[in-house]
Amino acid sequence: MRIALLAFPRVQMLDVVGPADVFAEAARQLGNSRAYRISVIGTVAGQIKGTNGLRLATDDSIETFKGAIDTLLIAGSPSVNDVAHDAHLRDWVRYQATRVRRIGSVCSGAFVLGAAGLLVGRRVTTHWNSSALLARQYPDAVVEPDSIFIRDGNLYTSAGVTAGMDLALALVEEDHGRDLALSVAREMVMYFKRPGGQSQFSAQLAAQTAERTNIRQIQTYIVDNLAADLSVALLAQRADMSERNFARVFKAEGGFTPAEFVELARIDQARRLIEGSNVSLKRLADQVGYANLDGFRRAFVRRLGVTPSDYRKRFL
Asked: Partner of 107 at 20 to 30 A CA spacing, among 16, 155, 231, 308?
């Protein structure tokens, strides 16, 4: 299978080399260097300089490439809009979309797909910091800003940077099965594998973003006291605010309601416990503040798209 990675000046280098290394490792473990033939196709011929200053040698350019592609992945860049609306690039991507088995993007590469008219009516994701802009520019797309990667038919889109490796690992599993994907993940010291619906955010990361000290302190309290009563009433009292004002300010500061943040924090910790221990799910639910297993299971599926037991199987 030829995996073509489309790159352009000021590309985010890991958007290219991350997925390429996943496919290359899969081919190595298959004992067949041609199982995945990786090509970097540039929007211009010759070397491309990435955002980190390193230079990437392309195998071909959109002007000269003549071969067949199985899977085309378009890399992203902070400068993606400098190239996304180039008429020649747009036409090339649109043409390839009629020929390839799979087409997709890493990070803000989704904007190139959008410019080519390939996102209409499709479920897509991108880097969390670009999701709102993608939704504004392409209102006919169904942008899901909190997913690691999404498959909609033969269209695949992923979140930012390292999420491209998660997407590549999912494609390896699709092509050659779970055992190979698991082996590749272990060799590359990756989790096998973050579900596509898993949040791009962790509660620990979100707790660092609030500007108001009292809200940040409440977020930290939640993360450190998951088994406690974390009702809005008690959290507002701790913040010395009215419930209504607390809920309004909390949402404005972090983008989550207090209840959403509590659920995010609890499921984030539950996920970590599942990955690192064999504790029973009932005991685990108790540890992160759920009174019953059914409520825990529903919240887990809502946040990650899989049941706790199915998630655990990924790490066996």
From this structure: 308
